[in-house]
Amino acid sequence: MLLELERRPQHSSAMVLLSPLIAVGLTLLTAAALLAIIGVDPARGLAVYFVEPLSTSWSLQELALKASPLVLIAIGLSVCFIANTWNIGAEGQFIAGAILGGGFALSYHTTGAWWVLPIMLLLGALGGMVYALIPAILRVYFGANEILTSLMLVYVAQFGLDYLVRGPWRDPHGYNFPQTVNFEAAATMPLLFPGGRLHLGVVITLAVVVVALVFLGKTLLGFEIRVVGMAPRAGRFAGFNDRRDILLAFAVSGALAGLAGIIEVAGPIGQLLPSISPGYGFAAIIVAFLGRLNPLGILLAGLILALSYLGGEAAQISLRVPLDLTNVLQGVLLFYVLACDTFIVYRIRLLRWRRRVASGVP
Amino acid sequence: MADASAAPAGDSGRPVLQARGIVKRFGDLVANNGIDLAIGEGEIHALLGENGAGKSTLVKVLYGALQPDAGEILWQGESVAITSPTAARALGIGMVFQHFSLFEALTVAENVALGLPTRKPLREIAAEIGAISAAFGLPLDPTRLVHDLSVGERQRIEIVRCLLQDPKLIIMDEPTSVLTPQEADMLFGTLERLAGEGRAILYITHRLEEVRRLCRHATVLRQGRVVAAVAPRDETAASLARLMVGSDVRAVHHVRGTAGKAILEIRDLSLSADRLMGVPLRDISLAVCAGEVVAIAGVAGNGQSELFAALSGERASPADAIRIDGLPVGGWGITARRRLGAAFVPEERLGHSAVPRLSLSDNVILTRHGIGGVSRLGFVLHQRARRQAAEICTAFDVRKSGQDPEAASLSGGNLQKFAVGREILIKPRLLVVNQPTWGVDVGAAVMIRQAMVDLAMLGAAVLVISQDLDEILEIADRICVISHGRLSEAYPAQTLSLERIGLLMGGAHPERAVEEADAA
Question: What is the ipTM of this complex?
Answer without folding.
Answer: 0.84
